[in-house]
Design goal:
two-stranded parallel ribbon, 10 helices, 12% strand
């Protein structure tokens, strides 16, 4: 599989600024930038899929999908498969814990979970969130162990205080939590979902299906 990365650090800086100032997040200009990135991809070299890998930018999904519709290229927000699995696992009246290390991501994650829940006719799901900014700083400094320890402690504290049915780790960067702790679900006794695991599994299934149809 050939991976082509398209991005601009200014997008993140812009939605962080918008979040601090209490403005809509992500800003409309960020969504428009993602549409341009997608069009550049399909016009320069038509890919087999476009993966939106920023959870805060999952709000760009409908616009990106519409922009490339004529090219028949599937668009996948990397956290959509995680949301679908989380909603499938939780019963009516159950609780999903959203853990984030970056403030702007929480609202985008909850909105997407609510949208998926409505489509699945699960209207009584409860969402609670925990944001650990220090973990984001630790990971940025290369301290993966410190990042993972902070996330684990946050999950344990919330689980000890209330019922939690599923944990959703809101950002792709948080996938390292399970990569470096492969038995953590067994140890904590609770399903913990990451967009990296669920998202790339979805991409793999899409590619396998396409290759089988080509035979």
């Amino acid at each position: 599989v050939k991976l082509v990365n398209v991005g601009n650090e200014a997008v993140q800086l812009n939605f962080m600024k918008a979040h601090r100032e209490g403005k809509p997040c992500p800003p409309q200009e960020n969504i428009e930038a993602f549409v341009r990135y997608a069009l550049d991809l399909v016009e320069l070299y038509k890919p087999d899929a476009i993966l939106i890998s920023c959870s805060t930018m999952n709000r760009a999904y409908p616009k990106v999908q519409e922009a490339v519709k004529q090219y028949e290229v599937p668009v996948i927000p990397i956290d959509m498969p995680m949301m679908e699995e989380a909603i499938a696992r939780v019963e009516e009246g159950g609780t999903i814990l959203i853990v984030a290390t970056h403030g702007p991501t929480v609202k985008s994650t909850q909105l997407l979970l609510e949208e998926v829940a409505r489509k699945a006719n699960k209207q009584n799901v409860k969402y609670i969130s925990e944001t650990i900014e220090e973990a984001f700083e630790r990971l940025g400094a290369g301290d993966i162990e410190g990042h993972n320890d902070l996330i684990r402690r946050a999950i344990e504290q919330r689980r000890n205080g209330e019922r939690i049915d599923v944990v959703v780790l809101a950002q792709l960067s948080m996938s390292v939590f399970k990569i470096f702790n492969p038995r953590v679900e067994e140890e904590l006794g609770i399903p913990i979902l990451t967009s990296g695991e669920c998202g790339f599994r979805k991409v793999r299934a899409l590619f396998v299906d396409k290759s089988q149809k080509a035979l």
